[in-house]
Amino acid sequence: MFSTFFVNTCILVTFLYITGLISQRYKIRLHTLTHKVHWIGGALFGCYGIVIMYYSIPVGFNTIADLRHLAIVATATYIGGPAALMATLFICLGRLLLFGINNQAIVGAVFMLLVGLGCTVLSHLSWSRLPKLMIMNVFALGIIFCPLMINLKNLDDVLHVYPLQFFISMVGGCLLYLIAESINTSNELLLRLEHTSYTDHLTNLSNRRQLEFSLEEQLPQARQRHEHLSVLVLDIDHFKEVNDTYGHAAGDAVLRQLGQILMEKCRANDVVTRSGGEEFTVLLPNCAFRQALRIANQILSGVNQHEFILADGLVLKVTVSIGVTTFPGTGEDMSGAALLEQADKALYEAKKAGRNRVCSYEI
Question: One GO BP annotation here (predicted)?
């Protein structure tokens, strides 16, 4: 009996680890779960509960004991109420359809449904995850005692299995919590490190690495969908003089404020990047040439109107030069590097023509 309950715990822990790998692969975070993740997660944990039932203990006529309720408890704790209900429905249907429809199975399914409903309500408590999980576990075990009594009709038979089930369930709940928290912490750290590796620390914009990654992703999509992909490359005019005259702290302040202007003037799906030094690049998916020119001129106007305020209260006026190019203006077979080179050439023309202007790449 002990070994079967232990196997139940091991199965759930294994599935929990697999779920952690899935959430890591698809960058799923507990505080940003979508409705889709709720339903898929609930269905997944429901299937886990069904697997656990295959390793249950026969304790009477058509009556089994196992730890399937922990799948519901884990779902309610880490995903939420809707997912817990989905997991409960899967487990109840699994109990009836896979193990036979009879009076004992119906009683077990009804009370398991009560477990799901109760855990759904408890999932809305504003407690931390450990006490919430433990309360749900105790609640579920209290509910489970009822169908055992109804089906076995003998307290001695119930007490033969229930204390061990209760003990291993509580230990399994603690183990589940430790592993789930470890997986969640590991995933959060990985996502934070990944974000850091793709982010410019000064402006909090994307960095060159993210630009190259986005370009490798967006260019084939634009080619496949027959869409335009535009690139802006801009450079702060006479930025060296700002650093030489006012110091590097002043230069950093200008860079940060320019990054804010770019984020305000660009669209939500545009990739705004600090490419290096005083140079910025903006990747504009599904953006035709005229629209790209309009965005570039909005940026130019925004910079001209902005007063760059330094730490000591000093106000600077800064201008930028911008180069614009659009795929597939010069051919379908263009590479990402070639597209950036065209934008760089357009930027050079803007500098050559007197700065503080927008120039486009000419074939």
Answer: cell wall organization
pLDDT band of residue 13 (cuts 50, 70, 90) is confident
Q: Is the pLDDT of residue 363 over 60?
A: no
Query: Whole-angstrom Cα distance, residue 217 to residue 226?
Result: 14
Handedness of CA 9, 11, 15, 20 (dihedral sign): positive
Distance CA 179, CA 11 (A): 13
Task: Report the percent of the chain where pLDDT is more than 70.
Answer: 96
CA 208, CA 210: separation in Å to the nearest integer? Answer: 5
The mean-pLDDT minimum among 25-39, 41-55, 189-203, 241-255 falls in 25-39
Phi, psi of 265 (to 5 degrees): -85, -25
DSSP 8-state code for residue 324 = E
**How deeply is 302 buried, as exposed, middle or buried, from its count of CB atoms within 10 A (0-12, 13-18, 19+)?**
middle
Q: Find the catalytic residue in 278, 279, 307, 362.
A: 278
Q: How confident is the model over 180-227, as pLDDT tens digits?
A: 898 888 888 888 888 788 899 999 999 999 999 999 999 999 999 999
Question: Dihedral of CA 74/79/81/83: which sign?
Answer: negative
Residue 143 near residue 111, CB atoms below 8 Å? yes
Query: Cα–Cα distance between 1 and 5 in angstroms, integer?
Result: 7
Domain boundaries, the chain: 2-197, 208-360
> Pick from 72, 65, 63: which is nearest to 91 by CA?
72
Whether pTM > 0.90 for this model: the answer is no
Active site residue 278: yes
Q: Which helix (H) or strand (E) holds 10?
A: helix 2-25
Query: Which of the listed CATH numbers 1.10.1760.20, 3.40.50.720, 3.40.50.300, 1.10.10.60 matches domain 2-197?
Result: 1.10.1760.20
| Per-residue tokens: 3 | 């070994």
Phi-psi region of 33 (alpha: psi -120 to 50; beta: other; left: phi over 0): beta
Q: Domain 208-360: which topology?
A: Alpha-Beta Plaits (3.30.70)
